[in-house]
UniProtKB/TrEMBL annotation, chain A:
Swiss-Prot/TrEMBL keywords: Cytoplasm, Kinase, Phosphotransferase system, Sugar transport, Transferase, Transport
Family matches, as Pfam families: PTSIIB_sorb
Gene3D superfamilies linked: Phosphotransferase system, sorbose subfamily IIB component
Compartment list: Cytoplasm
Residue span(s) of domain PTS EIIB type-4: 3-168
Superkingdom of source: Bacteria
Keyword Kinase included in the entry's annotation: yes
Main location: cytoplasm
KW Transport (keyword) present: yes
Protein name, entry field: PTS sugar transporter subunit IIB
Species name: Dorea ammoniilytica
UniProt signal peptide: none
InterPro entries noted in UniProt: PTS_IIB_sorbose-sp (IPR004720), PTS_IIB_sorbose-sp_sf (IPR036667)
Automatic annotation (TrEMBL), chain B:
PANTHER family: PTS PERMEASE-RELATED-RELATED (PTHR33799), PTS SYSTEM MANNOSE-SPECIFIC EIIAB COMPONENT-RELATED (PTHR33799:SF1)
Record InterPro entries: Bacterial_PTS_sugar_comp, PTS_EIIA_man-typ, PTS_EIIA_man-typ_sf
Organism of origin: Dorea ammoniilytica
PROSITE patterns referenced in this protein's UniProt entry, alphabetically: PTS_EIIA_TYPE_4
Stored Gene3D superfamilies: Phosphotransferase system, mannose-type IIA component
Positions of the PTS EIIA type-4 domain: 5-128
Top-rank taxon: Bacteria
Pfam families named among the record's database cross-references: EIIA-man
Record's keyword terms, sorted: Transferase
Protein name per Swiss-Prot or TrEMBL: PTS mannose transporter subunit IIA
Keyword rRNA processing: no
Length: 170, 145
C-alpha cells in the first residue's frame, strides 16, 4: 500500500478557504495544515500570497498543482501533522487518486453553478466530467459523500449520481 | 456640513451591512458617503465583486474603507480579490463600535484611511468583553484591598 501523509479531510469546495472550512472543519478535524490543490491557483502568485498570508489561526496554507500534490502527499508524514486538502472540483481528487494517492474519502462541500454544471446535491453542482470523476472514485473504492458542515449528517451520493448521469445522458 | 472625504463601504452576508448602516444613522444621525452591500444566496461572489469594483472605480481605492463582517467569508473574499488590482483599505470583523469610530473620526482634520483602520481595530478590541467575567474580576479587586 502506497504511503501517504495524514490526511484528515479531503474536501471539494470551490470557495477554497472559506467560512465553513475555517470555523467548522478545521477545528473539528484539528487540521494544522491546509493544502490547496489547484493547477490554476498554484500558477497565480497573487492568489498564493493572499491565501498564505490569510491562513486561519493555527494553520499553515500550502498551494500545489495536482502533480506536485501527488508527489508531496505520497511520503511518510511527520508525527502530529493533520492535513486538510481543498480542491475546487472532484476531478482534482480523481486525478490524484489515479496518480496513486490512496485517498479513502472525498467530501463534497460546495461547488457553485457555472459553465455546464447542473445541481447535484444542495449547494453542489457538477458538470459531466465531474459526475464521471465521482463515479470513477466510487468504483475505485473511495467513499465520496456530501456534507456541508460537520454538524450535518453525511449524505450518500448514489442516487444523485444516477440522476446526474441520466440528466447528462452519460 | 460637507460630505466626508472618506467613504465607508459595508459588505456582508445578507442584511447585516444594511442593518449596521441603519443603526449607525440612528445613533449618529443621517450619514452621507457610506454604502451597504449584501451577498444573498442567489448571488455569486462575482456579482458582488463587480459592484465593489464599481465603487472603487467611482470613488478611488484610496478614499474608501471596506468593512466586512467575517474573515474568510465570501464578502471578505470578494474584497480581498480586489487587492489584486487596487491598494484596498479593508477591516474585517465589523461591529458597531468600530463603525461608529470610523464614522465619527473620518471628519477629523487630517483623518486618513490608514489611521481610521487602526482606530477601528482599537475600538473593536475594546468592545469585546465577557461582562460577567469582567464584573467578577472587579469584585476580586475589591477583596484585595
Amino acid at each position: 500500500m502506497a504511503e501517504m501523509r495524514n490526511v484528515v479531510l479531503a474536501r471539494v469546495d470551490d470557495r477554497l478557504i472559506h467560512g465553513e472550512v475555517v470555523t467548522a472543519w478545521t477545528p473539528t478535524f484539528k487540521a494544522n495544515k491546509i493544502i490547496i490543490i489547484d493547477d490554476e491557483v498554484a500558477k497565480d502568485t497573487f492568489n498564493v500570497r493572499v491565501v498564505k498570508a490569510l491562513a486561519p489561526a493555527g494553520t499553515k496554507v500550502i498551494v500545489y498543482n495536482v502533480e506536485k500534490a501527488a508527489e508531496k502527499l505520497m511520503v511518510q508524514g511527520v508525527p502530529g501533522e493533520r492535513l486538510l486538502l481543498l480542491a475546487k472540483t472532484p476531478t482534482t481528487y480523481n486525478r490524484l487518486i489515479k496518480a496513486g494517492v490512496p485517498l479513502k474519502e472525498v467530501n463534497l462541500g460546495g461547488a457553485g453553478i457555472r459553465g455546464e454544471r447542473q445541481p447535484f446535491i444542495n449547494n453542489v453542482a457538477l458538470n459531466p466530467e465531474e459526475v464521471l470523476a465521482c463515479e470513477e472514485m466510487q468504483k475505485a473504492g473511495v467513499n465520496v459523500y456530501y456534507q456541508l458542515v460537520p454538524e450535518q449528517s453525511v449524505v450518500k451520493i448514489d442516487d444523485a449520481l444516477k440522476k446526474a448521469k441520466d440528466n447528462f445522458g452519460l | 456640513m460637507a460630505d466626508s472625504k472618506i467613504r465607508v463601504v459595508l459588505v456582508s452576508h445578507g442584511e447585516q451591512s444594511k442593518g449596521m448602516l441603519n443603526t449607525v444613522q440612528m445613533l449618529l444621525g443621517e450619514q452621507t458617503n457610506i454604502a451597504a452591500y449584501s451577498l444573498y444566496p442567489e448571488q455569486t461572489i462575482d456579482d458582488l465583486t463587480k459592484v465593489l469594483r464599481e465603487e472603487i472605480e467611482k470613488y478611488g481605492a484610496e478614499n474608501i474603507i471596506f468593512l466586512t463582517e467575517l474573515k474568510h467569508g465570501s464578502p471578505f473574499n470578494a474584497v480581498v480579490s480586489l487587492t489584486r488590482d487596487y491598494d484596498v483599505y479593508h477591516v474585517t470583523g465589523t461591529n458597531l463600535a468600530m463603525l461608529m469610530t470610523i464614522v465619527l473620526e473620518r471628519d477629523f482634520e487630517g483623518a486618513t484611511c490608514e489611521g481610521l483602520c487602526e482606530a477601528a481595530i482599537n475600538a473593536a478590541a475594546d468592545s469585546y468583553v465577557d461582562v460577567r467575567k469582567m464584573l467578577m474580576d472587579s469584585d476580586d479587586d475589591e477583596e484585595d484591598e
